[in-house]
Amino acid sequence: MAGGSDGADPRRAAMNPAEWLVRAAVRRPGAPALMQGTRVLTDYAAFARRAGAVGAGLAARGVTPGERVALYLGNHPAYLEALYGIWFAGAAAVPINAKLHPREAAWILRDAGAVACFVAPDTPAGLPDLPLIDVAGPDYATLAAGAPLPGPVAMVPGALAWLFYTSGTTGRPKGVMITAANLVAMSLCYLADVDTVEPGDAALYAAPMSHGAGLYALVHVLRGARHVVPESGGFDPAEILALAPTLGQVSMFAAPTMVRRLVDRASATGTMGAGATGEGIKTVVYGGGPMYRADIEEAVAVMGPRFVQIYGQGESPMTITALARELVADRSHPRWAARLASVGVAQSAVRVRVADAEGRTLPPDETGEILVSGATVMAGYWQNPAATAETIRDGWLWTGDLGSMDRDGFLTLQDRSKDVIISGGTNIYPREVEEALLTHADVHEVAVVGAPHPEWGEEVVAFVSSTPGAALDPAALDRHCLDRIARFKRPRRYVAAQGLPKNNYGKVLKTELRRRLAEGER
């Protein structure tokens, strides 16, 4: 299969991510590509052929270059076939977290103007009226078995490739427009700053493929490595520790809370032999939330120098800073402890600085907002020029995160300027939860904050002031939330409050609520 099947001028075409799959299939046609557990499902020749067939099928159904096609399913062996099929057709992928409530997914589908959506067999009702393609059904089987396109459709410069929805503090999701060029830069940064990838490596998808784990598929496709979905379809520490020695050369992305659980399991089974301390695991890239220094020190002590840290966000996916494995494992440098507490140094395709509210670069070790510019920064927010103008100013992405940078360029996160709660590596936005609770007749006021949790990093806690004559009923509020938002976003605790603390401007003092929680835990 050759690239540029639509006859576009190659001098003006952008790199279509599916071209890397075509090249890998030419170089290593018989190499194992897609796997479930230890079972090889397709080699690279079949992977490229089936993705090309999905692309042809989408085109035959009227999908044109630049249109949006969604993926609303969890980790599945067909996920990458469908993703690359979307790109074969020159369309843009819209990954949707499988944990989202159907109402939330429906909002994204409508906002993106999706013309089709790949789904799982157990997808609940409530999605818009558009073609739904069940990846485990006969329709998809027919699609993937058809005649493939002669090559990926050439993409125009600046073509949208990945439309990722991330909620803002207003509670309304925003579509982050990631171009094909952004994805190329991100992938090359992986090779330059994060880790090497060899043809014999195995990318293990224990974290959601709709997020960073799925984006790391690109560089592993480029190198012709294996792509493994665990039999469980998700993160199971015992499964991973048992699977890794058989697979060998396993690389995976994990939230800090996942690293904590993996290390706990390894420590608990340390006398069981192979796999108990991570045999077969080449690299664990961690990010997506705060990693406590004590936790990563223990991780290295138990499992060895297998860990690399990255810091990024949807608007500059997986690519702001990196802390290489030798720095994570180093204990000889005079400032090793401070470096280990940092998120590393700027990745190769970006510039990073810390600035004050006017955008002036601050001196070393002073705290301000983290700004990023470079080849991985988004093109903007989908159909939201006001939010784009607010977030990208003079070519710099204002991340909303606060941090400080030392004289050697190591960036340390100090706090988040937004009230986002990070639980299990997933962002939860309090405003969205508050708005859901405020629609309950018994809720007069509510404020949602994050509280430290030993396993998930943070848990959602709601302070509720009830309407006159009503009493706090956590079970009723829980059912109310489950009807409106995703299960993982609902509060884990409800605290009765006579009134919420406010400043002179009427703004709820969430710092005071966090202080109350901390004092209650002591």
What this model shows, in words?
The chain has 522 residues and is α/β, with parallel strands linked by helices. The strands form 6 sheets. It has a 9-stranded mixed sheet, sandwiched between helices. Helix 1 runs antiparallel to helix 2, helix 2 (44-60) packs across helix 3 (79-88) and helix 10 packs across helix 11. The relative contact order is 0.09.
In terms of quaternary structure, the protein is single chain
Helix/strand/pairing category? alpha/beta
Could you give the distance between the termini?
64 Å
Strand order within the widest sheet?
2-1-10-9-11-12-13-14-15
Mean pLDDT across every amino acid position: 91
Structure summary, number of beta strands: 26
Main sheet overview: 9 strands, mixed
Bulk shape: globular
Rg from alpha-carbon coordinates: 23 Å
Helix content: 25-40%
In terms of DSSP E residues, the strand content is 25-35%
| Total count of helical runs of at least 4 residues | 17
| pLDDT < 50 stretches | none
